[in-house]
Amino acid sequence: MGVAREPDPVEVPGSRRRWTNEAIRRIEADYNRSADTHLVPLPVPGYPELAVYFKDESSHPTGSLKHRLARSLFLYALANDWLAEGRPVIEASSGSTAVSEAYFARLLELPFVAVMPRSTSPEKIAAIEHYGGRCHFVDDPGRLHAECRELAQSNGGHFMDQFTYAERATDWRANNNIAESIFNQMRCEPQAEPAWIVCSAGTGGTGATLGRYVRYSRRATRILCTDPENSAFFDHYRDQLAGRDMASDCAGASRIEGIGRPRVEPSFLPGAFDAMLKVPDALSLAAMRWVAARLGRRVGGSTGTNFVGVLWLAARMRAAGEQGSLVTILCDGGERYAHSYYNPDWYAAQGIDVAVPDAVIAAAAAGVALPALDAAFAVT
Predict the structure, then answer these.
(1) Torsion of Cα atoms, 169 then 171 then 172 then 176, to 10°
(2) Span 268-324, pLDDT tens digits
């Protein structure tokens, strides 16, 4: 009987490794050309004892918080040898993630395909196409992930899958992630360590990074996650704390673009958060308008959702006799929402009242506690 022959070794071709090295160099060079995003103080008249800051992620080259995520996803995919020269990148996104991924795909000279609902706004489509991306439309939003997998398989591409890999791709220990950046920028402020950081969840990756970083660096800062209507995250978090079977989906889609999901995504880590708040859409959009008026420029709806969280915390801190600083995220600018959040016809079509929510937010910013949210929408 002969001796079984060991199979010949299989090696990654040197040309592929050289391409990967060059791709990573290009992303790092792009990062070195970019400045950090600003930390903007915004006084809230009713709470002079509290300092409120917005981490302005709209100043990234692609205009949103998702620029950080896209960079991390591309580096993660390159390090895992999932990308190859000339092979397309596919993503399930109709919003800011697709815009940012299209930017990095163009940087690496890779084709990019954004799989999105046919109802996606023309502003988002134009932004994706501006960076050389192609939009692939589906009629059934429930088919987005399946369509991405089929496209990747059929053309030898890679499905980036932000909702699975967001929390894995980000280096949460440091490397100038959003958490480290916030704390570095706060060092010279009177109340340098924030009492709370407020963020919302789309993939859950930003919340995971913030929650992990404050624990890893042994800080007292707590993390509040704000969730819009028509999102599964809040109910999932509430059910976990109550020790019962956790909800995994909900009916409908979020009207606050970029955050909220109809199902709980793999990157959403409930343990990253110290509290969650479910925010009615009408209040999110009223808060968006309040912030935009104070800053003198438009912001997106998710920034309004975050600011409702700030107002809710401010009232609780005052009631407990606490002082301190609060940091939240200005996720993106409002230019992409001219057709919706800054269009009166959109509110009429959605059946959303404007006058009453505006009055509620104005009163909350003047120091009046938000009505009803403690009883029905908050979990700590």
Answers:
(1) -130
(2) 999 999 999 999 999 999 999 999 999 999 999 999 999 999 999 999 999 999 999
Average pLDDT, the chain: 92
Residues 48, 82 within the same domain: no
Dihedral sign, CA of 56, 187, 172, 273? negative
Specify whether 106 is located in the same domain as 163.
yes
Q: Which of 167, 183, 207 is the last residue of a domain?
A: 167
The CATH number of the domain holding residue 215 is 3.40.50.1100
Q: Give the helix/strand (H/E) hosting 72.
A: helix 66-79
Would 4 be classed as within a structural domain? no
| Residues 6+ positions from 25 with CB-CB distance below 8 Å | none
354 has pLDDT over 60: yes
Coil vs helix vs strand at 11: coil
Sign of CA dihedral 8, 10, 15, 17: negative
Looking at residue 375, what is its pLDDT? 46
Domain range enclosing 107: 66-167
Residue 231 · residue 276 · CB < 8 Å: no
Does the reported pTM lie above 0.90?
yes
Residues 146, 203, single domain; the answer is no
Tokens of residue 325, six digits: 């600083």
